[in-house]
Amino acid sequence: MQRSEQQDVAQIPASGGDSPQLRLDWDDLKLFLAVAEAGSFRSAASDLGLQASSVMRRIDQLEHRLRVKLFERAQGGVRLTAEGLTILDDARELKDRFLSIERKVAWKQRHDEGVVSIAVTDGLGAFWIAPKLIEFHQIAPRIKIYLKCSMDVPEVLRSSADLALQFTRPTGPDIAFARIARLHIWPYASTAYLKTYGTPRSIDELRQHRYVIQAANQLDESMFLSVLGAREFSDINAVRTNTSTAHYFMVCAGYGIGCLPTYIGSSNPSLVALDIGPDYPIDVYLSYRQAIGDIARVRRTIDWLKQIFDPKRHPLFGDRFVLPESPSTPDRFRSDYHFLPLPPMAPALRHRGSGDGPAG
Q: Is this prediction's pTM over 0.85?
């Protein structure tokens, strides 16, 4: 099939300074060289896997665009005209350059080298993937990761990123995806907050406290309302934010109780998991365009991402909910999760009766 002239186009001037520029693409030169080297339309067509009539028609079109005769037709085949000979060496040089580009691209595709962009939710990017990139650099030093953290749903078909980690199930043609993890959302509070306001032991007691809520794309913020039996956020004492980092640090600072993924909440020993449930699971999907799945650097990165979310190594990403402080949690659990420093408790929360604490 003949490609559009919009692709691989080079512009060459026609004879005469005031003539319009002619458009010549790589397929034209490749066809010209094939005929010149084979000595006949039929042999060139066989080499290229085309019909002889198609090769003849395309050479006629090329000669018409260039306004020169490139080949003399004879019963036994074809031979280059003087005009054809003048561009033969240039065409061969362009072929060598093009093949050199193809070899370089093919080498990079076969080897672990180049940039791989990963679109990921800001919490997973900041709290899980970023701390582990040094490990990836040690095993694949020539792969450069571009980590694009956002709660927006990534569009891998539009090449917004090579790989995407998202909470919504991917859809669309030519997309490969797999569910690689399950997050478990659980209520946490800082030890300083609980020391000041007490630990809720039931949903009824939980309603009397203050909350920190993340409101962003891919998240169901109404989940917290349903747990508390409230209809609107105005019915509860809460502050809302759109980022995971602000959400986490406000909970750490003692502003209120927040529902955090267990892998984040358990990264800090100064946060306490409240045993009042319920567990709220969120599936994590890895997606990418099928066309790039076999490129070496992309495949290496995919394998690494699956490894760092493997629930056999990191049980908090498994289908089964494990309360971090429960006896069923493996002894090696804590060492798997890098804990983040605890910010100082907000001054207004250090004393009861300030008006800023839980109702009642």
A: no
